[in-house]
Structure formats: structure tokens, C-alpha cells
UniProtKB/TrEMBL annotation:
This is Molybdenum cofactor sulfurase. It comes from Jeongeupia chitinilytica. Signal peptide: none annotated. Transmembrane segments: none annotated. Residues 117-261 form the MOSC domain. Pfam families: MOSC, MOSC_N.
Length: 262
């Protein structure tokens, strides 16, 4: 039976992933996943595609605070309730409302990136919605609340390319093992504990997969995107992993079995 072997969240979009042992899962995904966004002065998202050094920022999330750490920078702690000024935000073509915080956070990010930046927060009730499913709230994630990838799929990709790629390079929320490579492509609904998830769309991959998740350096050989393009080119682009939404909310924990419902 497939098993949940890892959980990751990314409190600020494009920063280093945080490994979890358990998490609440709601309609908007894992708690505090992509709840904050680095944006330009107009609120348009800035991501690791163009700013790969973002992956070297690490975050610690508490009930009342967000703490950011990055090489060469002093630690920055910000209160959640300090994000109290309405501010426009844009992720891809989605334009929606968010919350802007202290200028100290903007200055910290601008100094680290070497470019004018803002830190925005979704707030406790995201104003954004999934385009295809307008009843479902969405954080600053690209298009869907959750991304699931099979560990066997990662191993197969590594075999094809002749080099081992860390799963963190692909920025999943849920990692599942004890299944065949790309078995997740055929799943429709799964249960993990009390949580029921529905797969809604294969994940289209981009140049961000070529960024080393620890160093922030882009691969000179364009891997693993080059190998993915040879083996996983589908309608709409290069595919790896499955986007998912929550049908029944609850709590999940690493080590739980994954029941295939459909």
C-alpha cells in the first residue's frame, strides 16, 4: 500500500521548503503554505524562476510571528498582525487583495535580493480563488493548493538522467512511496487518515526545477528539465507530479497509509 513519506510547506513562496512530520490540511492546503509572498512594489510576484537566491531563505512560523533567515542577513521576526495594510497582489494572471506588513521586512528582502521588494500576506482568509474551481480558496501557490509526487517517480527520473535529484528540487507538499513510478498520474481520489484529496491536474514544470534547493544555483546542463522534456512532455508542457485539492479536511502525518479511492 502507498505510504505518505514526507510533507513540505513553503511559508513564503519560492523559499526553502520546511519538512513537517504532520500538518492540518484545509481547503487552501497545508497550514501556512505559501501564506506570504515576495513581490515588487506593484504586488506582482517575484519567484525563484528569476530570483533563485530566494530558495536560501528559511522561515520559522509560529502562531503570532514569522521569522526569516538568510545567508549574510540578520534574522528578521515579524508579527502576523503587523500585516495590516491592504495591498494589491498578482500571481500569474490572478489579481487579488492581500496585506502588506512593516517596511523593515521590505528593506530586509530588498537588501538580500538587491532589488526593491515587498512582503505580502494572504491573511487568515485568502481573497484569491482557483480559476477552474472558484469556490476553493488559494494562497500564493501557482495554481492549486497541493502538489503530490511519488518517490518512485523521482527515482525513475534520476535513472533516466544518470544523476540523483533531491525531491526538494520539485517542491512538493506530499511525497508518497511504495507505488510504481508515475502511479499518481492514474489516481483520482485518495484518503490519508481522515483527509480526502482529489487529483485535478498534472503539474506543468518550469525552469525552477533547475535551481538547486540548497545553493540557489541553476544547473548548467538544464537538468532535470531537459530529461523531463524527453520523457514527460504532455499537453500543455512538461509534466511531473499531480496538483490536488481537499475534499475532506483534517490532519495528516508522515507514515500514514494512502488509500486509493478512485
Amino acid at each position: 500500500m502507498p505510504t505518505l513519506t514526507a510533507l513540505y510547506r513553503y511559508p513564503v513562496k519560492s523559499i526553502h521548503g520546511e519538512a513537517l512530520t504532520h500538518s492540518l490540511v484545509a481547503a487552501a492546503g497545508l497550514a501556512d503554505d505559501r501564506a506570504w509572498l515576495v513581490a515588487d512594489r506593484n504586488g506582482r510576484f517575484m519567484t525563484g524562476r528569476d530570483w533563485p537566491q530566494l530558495v536560501r531563505i528559511r522561515a520559522e512560523v509560529a502562531d503570532a510571528t514569522l521569522t526569516l533567515r538568510a545567508p549574510g542577513m540578520p534574522d528578521l521576526q515579524i508579527a502576523r498582525n503587523a500585516f495590516d495594510t491592504a495591498h494589491p497582489a498578482q500571481v500569474w494572471k490572478d489579481e487579488f487583495g492581500a496585506w502588506h506588513g512593516p517596511v523593515e521586512a521590505d528593506r530586509w528582502l530588498s537588501d538580500y535580493l538587491g532589488s526593491d521588494a515587498r512582503l505580502l500576506y494572504t491573511g487568515t482568509a485568502p481573497q484569491r480563488r482557483i480559476r477552474r474551481l472558484p469556490d476553493i480558496p488559494l494562497s500564493f501557490a501557482d495554481g492549486y493548493p497541493l502538489l503530490l509526487i511519488g518517490e518512485a517517480s523521482r527515482r525513475q527520473l534520476s535513472d533516466w538522467a544518470g544523476q540523483d535529484f533531491a525531491m526538494t528540487r520539485f517542491r512538493p507538499n506530499l511525497v508518497v512511496d511504495d507505488a510504481e513510478p508515475f502511479a499518481e498520474d492514474g489516481w483520482t481520489r485518495i484518503r490519508i487518515g481522515d483527509v480526502v484529496l482529489r487529483m485535478v491536474k498534472p503539474c506543468t514544470r518550469c525552469v525552477f526545477t533547475t535551481v538547486d534547493p540548497d545553493s540557489g544555483e541553476k544547473s548548467a546542463d538544464q537538468e532535470p528539465l531537459r530529461t523531463l522534456a524527453k520523457h514527460r512532455k504532455g499537453e500543455g508542457g512538461v509534466l511531473f507530479g499531480q496538483n490536488a485539492i481537499t475534499e475532506i479536511a483534517g490532519r495528516i502525518e508522515v507514515g500514514m497509509p494512502v488509500d486509493l479511492l478512485d
